[in-house]
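Quick one, C-alpha cells below:
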C-alpha cells in the first residue's frame, strides 16, 4: 500500500511500504507511528528497564532544527536510536530546506533487538524520501552497545585493561540517550574510568563518548536530564565537556511534568547544542525556556557563554540564566571575591546516617552519654529547635567508642537542609546552631540530610554564623541556585563553589541580623543588600 509521507513544495514523496492507510505529515510523523506500533507490543515497564523513553515528535523536530552545518557531505550518528525519530527529524530538515546533492551517511546504534525492525522501517522511509530529492543516503545499523563498541579490552597478565577506541568521527550526533545507572565495575564504567565519580549513569557516558567522536567542526544535539549541570557526580565529565566543546544553545523545560508524560518520568530536561570548537571568552550562548513539550510560553535570551559554562579551578558548572534578572544575579555573585574556603570555613555533610546508626539512636536523653540529634525538621526560620518531635524520629544519639566519630563538638555552626521540596519558597534553607542552646552537651549529632558549615580548626563566632546563614537565605542566593541547579537538592560542592563577599561584610550582616532578632528570612533581604551595596531593584523579579 502506498501512502503520502511528505509534501515538499512542488514534489510529493511517496512511501511504498506502509502497513496501513496512515498519511504522515513528515518523516517524524512516520517514525512516531513506528514508536506507537512498538509500544503497543512492548510494555512500559520493560521499556523503562532499557532506558527506552522515546522523543515526542515536536521535540524531535525542535532538536533537528538546531543543526547548523551547511556541508554537502555529512556523517550523522544516533547512538541509541530507538525507532529513529531523531534521524527522521534531521532528514525532514534536509527535505524542507530543499538541500540538494548532499552525501549523507548515517550510523545508528540500538542494542534492543525488539526495536530494530521499527528502526529499520524508519530509516528505509528516510532513505527513500531523500533519494526522491536527490540526496543519496546510506545508513548502517549497529545492533550492539554504543559504549562497549568503542571500548578496547586487552589482557595484561590476569588483568583486563580498558581503553577507548574512537574509530569514526561524525559531523552531527543527535541523541536522546538511555537513562539508567551502571555499576562502577561494569565494563562501560571501566572503559570510561577516568571520568567516573560515584555511581555513573549511562546518559552521561553517551554524552561524553559522543563529544569525543565529533569531527573537527562537529555538532552534537542532546536531550538529557539537567542533573549533569551541577553536583559532584558528573564533575569530571562536565570538566571535560566544558573545556573541550562550546555550548552554544540550550533549551530548558522548566517543568517536572508533562515532557515524557506517557512514561510518567518526572525530571527537569534540557536540550543542548554543542560544537567541537574550543570555548572563547567572548562567546555567546543562546538560551530558551518553555514550560511544556508544546513549547508554550517560549522565552529566549542571549547570554555570555562564560556565565553559562563556569569553571573555578577544577570545578566546572553549567548555569542556566533564563531571564535578564538571572544574569544580573550571576554577575553580582561572581563579583564577590571570596569563597567559604578562602574565608576559612568548610562545609561537610551530617555524619549520622539513621539506618546505619540505628543501635546508637535514642528517643530521649536516656543517660549521660546521650547527646541531641538534629534533623532537617529541627531547622526553623533562622534557628535550630531541638525540642520538636516528628513521627517518632530519634531525638538523641548515644556517644560510645563505636559512635564517637558520628558526633561533632558542640560549637556554633550554620546548618543547611540538603533537600527542599518543590513547593518550598527557597532552595537554600540555612539556620544557626547556637552552642549556647546546648550548654550541658560536649557533642551533638547531625543527621545526614543536613550539611553544616564550620570553621577550620576553630569555633565560629555567632556574628560569622548569622552572617553566613542570612546571606545563604537571601533571595539573591536563591535565584543564583535556581540558575545553577534544576533540582531541589543543594549539595555541599555547590555551596563550596559559590562566591562570597569579604569577611567584614559577612560579620556586618551577622551583627545586623542579631540586632534585628528577626525570624523572617525574607525580612532580612533589604538590610543585607544595603550592607552589600546592591540596588534593591536588581534582585526583585
Ligand atoms: C531514551 S531512548 C531514545 C530513543 C530514540 N533515540 C528517541 O529519541 O526516541 C534510548 C534508546 O537507546 C537504546 N539503548 C540503551 N542502552 C543502549 C546502549 N548501551 N547502546 C545502544 N543503545 C542503547 C534503548 O534501547 C533505547 O531505544
Amino acid at each position: 500500500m502506498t501512502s503520502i509521507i511528505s509534501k515538499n513544495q512542488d514534489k510529493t514523496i511517496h512511501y511504498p511500504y506502509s502497513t496501513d492507510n496512515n498519511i504522515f505529515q513528515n518523516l517524524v510523523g512516520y517514525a512516531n507511528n513506528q514508536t506507537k506500533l512498538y509500544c503497543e507490543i512492548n510494555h512500559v515497564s520493560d521499556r523503562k528497564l532499557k532506558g527506552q523513553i522515546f522523543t515526542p515528535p515536536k521535540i524531535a523536530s525542535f532538536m533537528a532544527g538546531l543543526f547548523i552545518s551547511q556541508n554537502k557531505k555529512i556523517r550523522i550518528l544516533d547512538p541509541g536510536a530507538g525507532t529513529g525519530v531523531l534521524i527522521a527529524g534531521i532528514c525532514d530538515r534536509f527535505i524542507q530546506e530543499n538541500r540538494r546533492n548532499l552525501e549523507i551517511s548515517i550510523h545508528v546504534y540500538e542494542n534492543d533487538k525488539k526495536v530494530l525492525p521499527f528502526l529499520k522501517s524508519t530509516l528505509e522511509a528516510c532513505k527513500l524520501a531523500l533519494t526522491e530529492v536527490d540526496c543519496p543516503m546510506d545508513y548502517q545499523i549497529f545492533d550492539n552497545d554504543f559504549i562497549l563498541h568503542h571500548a578496547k579490552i586487552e589482557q595484561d597478565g590476569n588483568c583486563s585493561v580498558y581503553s577507548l577506541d574512537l574509530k569514526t568521527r561524525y559531523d552531527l550526533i543527535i541523541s536522546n540517550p538511555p537513562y539508567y545507572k551502571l555499576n562502577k565495575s561494569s565494563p562501560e564504567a571501566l572503559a570510561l574510568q577516568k571520568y567516573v565519580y560515584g555511581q555513573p549513569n549511562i546518559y552521561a557516558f553517551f554524552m561524553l563518548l559522543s563529544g569525543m567522536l565529533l569531527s573537527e567542526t562537529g555538532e552534537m544535539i542532546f536531550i538529557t536530564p539537567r542533573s549533569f549541570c551541577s553536583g559532584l557526580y558528573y564533575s569530571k565529565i562536565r570538566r571535560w565537556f566544558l573545556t573541550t566543546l562550546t555550548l552554544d544553545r540550550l533549551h530548558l523545560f522548566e517543568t517536572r511534568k508533562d515532557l515524557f508524560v506517557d512514561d510518567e518520568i518526572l525530571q527537569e530536561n534540557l536540550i543542548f547544542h554543542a560544537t567541537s570548537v574550543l570555548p572563547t571568552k567572548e562567546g555567546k550562548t543562546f538560551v530558551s525556556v518553555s514550560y511544556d513539550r508544546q513549547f508554550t510560553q517560549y522565552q529566549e535570551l542571549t547570554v555570555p557563554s562564560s556565565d553559562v559554562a563556569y569553571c573555578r579551578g577544577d570545578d566546572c558548572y553549567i548555569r542556566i540564566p533564563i531571564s535578564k534578572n538571572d544574569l544580573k544575579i550571576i554577575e553580582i555573585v561572581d563579583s564577590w571575591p571570596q569563597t567559604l574556603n578562602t574565608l576559612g570555613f568548610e562545609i561537610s555533610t551530617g555524619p549520622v546516617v539513621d539506618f546505619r546508626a540505628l543501635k546508637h539512636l535514642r528517643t530521649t536523653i536516656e543517660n549521660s552519654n546521650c547527646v541531641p540529634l538534629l534533623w532537617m525538621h529541627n531547622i526553623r526560620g533562622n534557628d535550630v529547635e531541638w525540642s520538636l518531635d516528628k513521627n517518632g524520629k530519634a531525638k538523641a544519639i548515644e556517644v560510645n567508642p563505636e559512635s564517637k566519630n558520628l558526633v561533632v563538638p558542640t560549637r556554633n555552626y550554620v546548618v543547611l537542609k540538603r533537600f527542599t521540596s518543590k513547593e518550598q519558597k527557597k532552595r537554600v534553607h540555612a539556620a544557626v546552631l547556637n552552642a549556647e542552646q546546648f550548654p550541658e552537651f560536649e557533642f551533638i549529632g547531625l543527621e545526614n540530610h543536613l550539611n553544616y558549615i564550620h570553621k577550620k580548626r576553630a569555633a565560629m563566632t555567632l556574628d560569622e554564623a548569622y552572617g553566613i546563614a542570612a546571606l545563604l537565605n537571601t533571595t539573591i542566593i536563591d535565584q543564583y541556585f535556581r540558575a545553577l541547579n534544576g533540582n531541589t537538592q543543594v549539595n555541599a560542592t555547590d555551596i563550596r563553589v559559590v562566591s562570597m563577599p569579604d569577611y567584614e561584610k559577612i560579620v556586618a550582616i551577622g551583627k545586623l541580623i542579631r540586632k534585628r532578632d528577626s525570624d523572617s528570612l525574607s525580612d532580612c533581604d533589604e538590610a543585607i543588600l544595603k550592607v552589600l551595596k546592591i540596588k534593591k531593584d536588581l534582585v526583585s523579579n
